[in-house]
Predict the structure of Redox-sensitive transcriptional activator SoxR.
Amino acid sequence: MAPVRELTVGQVAARSGVAVSALHFYEARGLIRSHRTSGNQRRYSRDVLRRVAIIRVAQEVGISLAGIAQAFQSLPEERTPTRADWNLLSTAWRDELDHKIAQMKKLRDGLTDCIGCGCMSIDKCPLRNKEDRLAREGTGARRLVVS
Amino acid sequence: MAPVRELTVGQVAARSGVAVSALHFYEARGLIRSHRTSGNQRRYSRDVLRRVAIIRVAQEVGISLAGIAQAFQSLPEERTPTRADWNLLSTAWRDELDHKIAQMKKLRDGLTDCIGCGCMSIDKCPLRNKEDRLAREGTGARRLVVS
DNA sequence: GCTTGACCTCAAGTTAAGTTGAGCTTGTAG
DNA sequence: CTACAAGCTCAACTTAACTTGAGGTCAAGC
């Protein structure tokens, strides 16, 4: 069979739509993997495109790179993931998404009733209290991402 | 009638559950307003509690402080907002929320079909292309918030 | 064989949303 | 009237997710 050509960073960047610097960054974060040519340049196997696509999609739904990295741990090292591997991942995220959607709906439905009314007294407001509060941890910015 | 007591930062912090430093920060960002005592201490009118509550709720659904500030522009300066004022705001956000929920659903439904299948070739993948791409602008971190 | 565009590394900058700390002032309870 | 908790300001630090820039190397075309 025709050998599947390996890709350079530039090519991956062009095809995936993310900047070269971002690809470097993802690699540093362990989200993608490359090997080097004799001249120390990165070469990617084709499945990096899928990985990158998934990274962007996941980010769009509010999953942090750390979360994505964690999910990716379930993928096999040094073996191109099979469809089954990816399916496992997507199923896990589907649940996360379902949860988020449900949460948003609750908030949306609560908004009109609650902001508009006189009940915003914090302690008693159903909107403030019916949702499980975020567990806050660490320092610095806490809610950069809806997660 | 009994004069409605003004609140100190500490009281607002305690009642709203946000840190004093955050209140300072919100004020610097123009999200809340206070006047000062002769001794230069902040005093808040009661409706700051509602404002803060709304700030937190809005953040939880992924609206940035900048976005909240913008929405708050529609509220009257130097007049305690009426229920109608707040309603206007909540209606605007309801739409935003509806949009987000719809987007999430699309993504969720696309995920299983798309990640699991072999179509992740970026250019052709329906998931990658059917959504309106984010308009990227400025420098620095671009997708800290799902917006 | 050399020029030019693509790469490489590493450090530093950026934005958002706050927090932390130092140094100093207020206000209230005893 | 004097502690001492609560305020105040301002600068610096934090995290996430990248980008920008400087200074140097690779490789493909003419």
